[in-house]
């Protein structure tokens, strides 16, 4: 940018949608806490309440933090690409750690109570989401964050990385919805159909999860809201391609 030029701004509407996504995200976290605190006794480790750490951690890690990690490239549009990549990877890594705590909580709780593991559709979808999310994070770090991958290899993998990023976000929300339904049917199956307050609150949480996913998805798929490459990034990309692929900056072989 030229000296004295006005600072770059975000496209019209982007900031509003990002703000709505964060409001929805914080509201769904508060709703999860309210459900567990008001109706399920709260959260405590190494106690009968250990299971409740599972839904809290999965909503926080696999939904809220994963969604925010996906939004990084839309929000930090004019910062250095390296810093944006690092923040993207850091948020995903933090989401994985929190989700792992949630998985440990449910397995330990099941073992303590003599409940079998991994038999429900929720558990299958949830474990698939976590394992694939971990693989996605490792591949992303290997291809984009650490040096070594060639320019053409990064270019070929990038579309897959973007697709599976959005797909795993959808799968994570789906797993949470299945988990909410499963928990309600286990805990209040006799009264759920009578529109009891706990059922209404949990259903509201489900709708907040859907709304959060829709807003994040909308921001991610608006073509004009994608992060534009900075001038120095374009120059570095061409230099990197020349060094690693033996091609001229003009693209000739």
From TrEMBL:
GO CC annotation: chromaffin granule membrane; lysosomal membrane
Recorded superkingdom: Eukaryota
Keywords: Cytoplasmic vesicle, Electron transport, Heme, Iron, Membrane, Metal-binding, Translocase, Transmembrane, Transmembrane helix, Transport
Record GO terms (molecular function): metal ion binding; oxidoreductase activity
Membrane-spanning ranges: 12-36, 56-76, 88-107, 127-149, 161-180, 200-220
Record's bilayer topology term: Multi-pass membrane protein
A Pfam family that the UniProt record links to this protein: Cytochrom_B561
Domain Cytochrome b561: residue ranges: 20-221
Co-factor(s): heme b
Keyword Membrane: yes
Catalytic activity: monodehydro-L-ascorbate radical(out) + L-ascorbate(in) = monodehydro-L-ascorbate radical(in) + L-ascorbate(out)
Subcellular localization, as worded in the UniProt entry: Cytoplasmic vesicle, Secretory vesicle, Chromaffin granule membrane
Function according to Swiss-Prot or TrEMBL: Transmembrane reductase that uses ascorbate as an electron donor in the cytoplasm and transfers electrons across membranes to reduce monodehydro-L-ascorbate radical in the lumen of secretory vesicles. It is therefore involved the regeneration and homeostasis within secretory vesicles of ascorbate which in turn provides reducing equivalents needed to support the activity of intravesicular enzymes.
Protein name: Transmembrane ascorbate-dependent reductase CYB561
Originating organism: Ptilorrhoa leucosticta
Taxonomic classification: Eukaryota, Metazoa, Chordata, Craniata, Vertebrata
């Amino acid at each position: 940018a030229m000296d004295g030029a006005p600072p770059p701004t975000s496209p019209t509407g982007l900031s509003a949608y990002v703000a709505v996504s964060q409001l929805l995200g914080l509201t769904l976290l508060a709703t999860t806490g309210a459900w567990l605190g008001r109706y399920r006794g709260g959260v405590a480790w190494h106690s009968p309440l250990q299971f409740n750490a599972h839904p809290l951690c999965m909503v926080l890690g696999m939904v809220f933090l994963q969604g925010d990690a996906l939004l990084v490239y839309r929000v930090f549009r004019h910062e250095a690409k390296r810093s944006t990549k690092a923040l993207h990877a850091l948020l995903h890594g933090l989401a994985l750690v929190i989700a792992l705590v949630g998985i440990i909580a449910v397995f330990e709780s099941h073992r303590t109570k003599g409940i079998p593991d991994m038999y429900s559709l929720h558990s299958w979808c949830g474990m698939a989401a976590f394992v694939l999310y971990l693989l996605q994070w490792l591949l992303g770090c290997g291809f984009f964050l650490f040096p070594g991958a060639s320019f053409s290899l990064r270019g070929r993998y990038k579309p897959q990385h973007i697709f599976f990023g959005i797909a795993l976000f959808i799968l994570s929300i789906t797993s949470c919805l299945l988990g909410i339904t499963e928990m309600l049917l286990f805990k209040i199956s006799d009264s759920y159909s009578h529109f009891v307050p706990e059922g209404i609150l949990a259903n509201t949480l489900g709708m907040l999860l859907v709304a959060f996913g829709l807003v994040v998805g909308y921001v991610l798929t608006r073509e004009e809201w994608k992060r534009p490459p900075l001038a120095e990034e374009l120059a570095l990309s061409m230099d990197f391609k020349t060094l690693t692929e033996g091609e001229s900056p003009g693209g000739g072989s």
